[in-house]
Amino acid sequence: MTSSALAPATGRLEWVDVAKGIAITLVVLFHAVIFLTDIGLAGFWAKLSGPLDTFRMPLFFFTAGLFAQNLLRAPLLEVFRRRSAKLVWLYLLWSAVWAVVFQFLPVYRDTDGQTMSPILLWLRALVLPNESLWFLYALALYFVAARVIRPLPMWVQLVLAGAISVIVGSAIIDWGNSPWEKTLTYFFFFLLAVHFGPRIRHTAPGIRWWAAVAVMVGYGVLLAVALRLDLLAMPGTRLVLGVAGVAAGIGLSVLIGRAQRLRWVSLLGKNTLPVYVLHFYVVLGGVAVLAQIRATAEPFSAVWVPALTAAGILVSLGIHRVSRRVPGLWDLPRKWRYPVAADSVASKRLT
After folding, report:
1. In 3D, which of 224, 243, 236 has the Cα closest to residue 169?
2. How many domains, in total, are found in the chain?
3. Distances (CA, A) of 296 to 148, 291, 323
4. pTM of the model
5. How far does the chain reach from its first CA to its final CA, in angstroms?
6. Structural domain of residue 37, as residue ranges?
């Protein structure tokens, strides 16, 4: 974690990496729940994971936009070359890997894709974002879209993005593609971070513990009420919960960042990319094994979700550790990279 002008050398904004670590952990857990549910081994986790939609992805996209404000002052082409180009490259590369590996995966819900060749499956991902990689697709679009609408007043940008989030998130319009729906739903939280990022980065580290706890409890109460009254489908509910979830995530991240024994969460937050693109294979492999011993594994159903979550994270980090120097695997090929000055360290933390 790098320091800021107002921070000690240890890194005042460590909470941002903690937030990313929390978000990516919940993403892996969510996917473990999805696929373990298919074979009846998700246990009580099946009821707990879904409602956290209003927490993990709003927080994930919010952290992605926290350091984008200065970058978005640059010309559109420069914004694309400095940020979106890398995301597009990684999306295309790992979608190709997925299209090949998909042919051998024993468990997956995309039955239509099972009839496609790897080439057609990859081409389809250009129009219909890949279910396991859509975050990269969305983020590449977000930087471009945020730069295009930058001349508009801030309130116009947020109202438009919020209205789209409400309409799509409430399923008023059925887009027929979950990644596109998510992409349209979460742009608001990226923009929220773009406009309020500097203020939040300055004030969040000083939040008192009791205020952080109060915000987290407030989010929990709102979520419980929404679930109890079945309000999640009501227009605007998910947007309100998402904003509350981001606030709760900030408070939780600040508290964890102050706990010496939990510093590993911030280390994970610095390495979200390999976990994001690789954990699917680990989780699906584990589910395939458990499916063969389902009767024996069923009494321990409460264990398998956290076990596969931990395995997905640790194996992904291990693979990244031995492959991080492979050219073009985790970044743009060197000849295509935009020359970035040394003063743009913060903006590199987006993935």
Report:
1. 236
2. 1
3. 55, 10, 36
4. 0.88
5. 13
6. 14-325
